[in-house]
Amino acid sequence: MKFKLKLLGTCLGLALSCTSSYAVSGVSDALNALGTGVSALTTKVIAPANTSDIADLSTTVVANLTTTQFAALSTVQIPALTTAQLAAVTTGQIGAMTSAQAKVLTSTQIAALPSISRMGSDVITAITTAALPSLSTSLLTTLTTAQIAALTTAQIASLTTAQVAAITTEQMPVLSTAELSAMTTAQFAALTSTQLNTLSNVKVASLSSAKVAAMPTSVVTGLSTALVPYIADTAIPYLTTAQIAAIQSAQLAVLDLTQVNALTSSQMSAIGSAVFSALTSRQIPALHASAFAGIPTSVMSAITLGQITALTTTQLNAFSSSQLNSIPTATFTTLTTGASGQIASLPTSLIANITTAYMTALATNQLTSLTTAQVNAMTSAQVSALAATMSTLLSNQFAGLSSSNLAGLSTAALTALGSDQLRSIPAAAIPGLPLGLTSDLLSAMISSTTTSFTPAQARAFTSSQFSSTALAGNTNMTSWRALAIA
């Protein structure tokens, strides 16, 4: 039912100086009739307005509500505000909102807000996780650092990936470790390296394995070398091979020793030779021996002199034959010597597979570092390749010769051996001397080094070796027969 209200100061409890009359049908009509004059009303006048009245208010009326009036709107009235009305609210009204009001804002209303930066930090935490994802990314970027820091972990977890990606470099550093922890892997994957590079060392160290593994390769590539050393050691093994392949030389070079030790075999298989060469001589010994199984031969072929000499004996024992043989010859010959050196640590299984080119490239001090077990593991081809340097081996090393590898000794190599070296050859290895000795080599050895062999060695010669017709006229035949019979 329509009625006339003469706005005379006492009408509806108003303190107005008005002389106009309006035909109105309800509270919203009365308020809309006031227009900008609504600001003169007391909160008691607006309080009775029901949700329909609130929804019918003009944007002019809503925009002219005082901060006190706006803050007085009930939790029943706030949800009734339309998107058009909310689009008209002022920053002052937003700043006057209470936690109770913020809590009842719907997702549609949140999306309609023209600003939010004036909202109190304690108020913004009241926005529900159902409504917050509707906040536009442009408004999210206007949040103050205090507001960002005030967001609850539940609110952080409710943000869309687009909202997370919109977080500014000023806002990012204020996210707490708890807030970062609350992010889902999908959210974390939406972050850029520019955003992550604003985090402190402590916050980077707090990142879980799942979050580290969620970083896109483009983000990994862009991580600051100042932050890389702070990635948790426990998270390193979870880096994907794609991420490892994206790592830059400078980033690999700053990994600390515990991080290097955490690298796995599969991860090492993804590192290119150019990046691998960035590992320092300090880092190399920290690599776990099991990780070497994954290093491709193409990468091994690029190993530097500083890296090869930094390898531990345990690491060398983990090498495969193909890996060892892929090392450049010039680099291979820098392996350290001595009883506790790298040469002596090579497993016998690798020794037998070293190419003859590598064997001949070894220096004298490297050859003399071979153990008797290593000498025993050498093939006849390897022994043959060492013909020119065989005489440099120590007498005790000759004790490692076997019947099979002794067959590789040439005439020149045998005749160049000294007495102590000859006498150190195991008697069991003597039958391995090539049958060619029966015609010329054995004759030469008998005539020049008869006394170098022990009786046990003489008796070890086979009948084929010892009954050569070429030896029949040898003047030393008698003494040799005596040794064999004794």
Q: How is this fold's topology laid out?
A:
Elements: E1 3-6, E2 21-24, H1 27-34, H2 43-46, H3 51-55, H4 59-63, H5 67-72, H6 83-87, H7 91-96, H8 99-103, H9 107-112, H10 121-124, H11 137-140, H12 145-150, H13 153-158, H14 161-166, H15 177-182, H16 185-189, H17 193-196, H18 201-205, H19 209-214, H20 217-222, H21 241-246, H22 249-253, H23 257-262, H24 265-268, H25 273-276, H26 297-300, H27 305-310, H28 313-317, H29 321-326, H30 329-332, H31 342-345, H32 348-351, H33 356-361, H34 364-367, H35 372-377, H36 380-385, H37 395-398, H38 403-406, H39 411-415, H40 419-424, H41 441-449, H42 455-460, H43 463-466, H44 477-485
Antiparallel strand pairs: 1-2
Radius of gyration: 44 Å
Strand order of the largest sheet: 1-2
What is the averaged pLDDT score? Answer: 86
Strand content: under 5%
Uncertain residue segments: 1-11, 13-24, 436-440
Q: How many domains would you count in the coordinates?
A: 4
Kindly report how far apart the N and C termini lie. 143 Å
Number of strands: 2
Please, could you describe this protein's structure?
- This protein has 486 residues and is mainly alpha-helical.
- 48% of the residues lie in helices and 2% in strands.
Brief description of this entry?
This protein has 44 helices and 2 strands. It is mainly alpha-helical and 486 residues long.
